[in-house]
């Protein structure tokens, strides 16, 4: 299955095997759940209701707001993959199979790392529908504006790395940006909704530090898709929203410089 290859799931699950016994996984139809094979066997004989607590535990371990475990994310992705693949079969007409699989793989990984385990259940169906909807919306809506054609795409597998790239020792540009955003919010150049959107964006960039800003683009593909999933919109909407915010800040920059000089 191409999604397994794109996410390198077989190697990742194999690397996770020694850790699985420490994850405290339980299933009502299995005495022990201490390997990926036992996880799969338990899920095959269990009902969706019986399977959900086990998958929810994996989602908690995988989530960036939980255990932040890449190993658990790989195991979770492998378990929900059959349902995801089944839902994607009807989308091949939208674009080439390769484009569809690459987009779906990225969304699947993001969904496994951001599942809201504290407030949601039915992990398998939620993730499969999330991947289907995001893929259908993006590939059906296309969202390939010329402005974004030169965006640098984060490398594989750096965009799912645990560790962030060390910050540059010169932090003055970051401080200037923080001052600009605070001023824009206080003067109404940006709305509170813009502020919340930027908070999601910046948090996501921190999680996928391999994203780079090019001279012609703004966001990497993985970051755009991650923000889209969290906000419940399409990737093209994320790009338009960022473009609008940047345009507003650019238009207001003379007033900001005047205010800072006074």
Q: Cα distance, first to last residue?
A: 62 Å
Look at the helices and sheets and give the structural class: mainly alpha
Contiguous low-pLDDT stretches (5 residues minimum) are 141-172, 209-217
**Largest beta-sheet characterization:** none
User: Given the structure, what is the number of helices?
Assistant: 11
Measured by DSSP, the beta-strand proportion falls in: under 5%
Count of strand segments: 0
Percent of residues in helices comes to: 55-70%
| CA-based gyration radius | 20 Å
Describe the structure.
The structure is a single chain. With about 260 residues, the chain is mainly alpha-helical. The protein has two domains: about 140 residues, no CATH class; about 100 residues, no CATH class. It has eleven helices and no strands. It is elongated.
Walk me through the topology.
Blueprint: H1 2-6, H2 9-16, H3 36-45, H4 48-62, H5 70-88, H6 97-114, H7 123-141, H8 172-187, H9 192-207, H10 221-231, H11 235-261
Helix pairs in contact: 2-5, 4-5, 5-6, 5-7, 6-7, 6-10, 9-10, 10-11
A few lines on this structure:
The chain is mainly α and 262 residues long. The protein folds into two domains: 2-142, no CATH class; 158-261, no CATH class.
Keywords:
single chain; 262 residues; mainly alpha; 11 helices
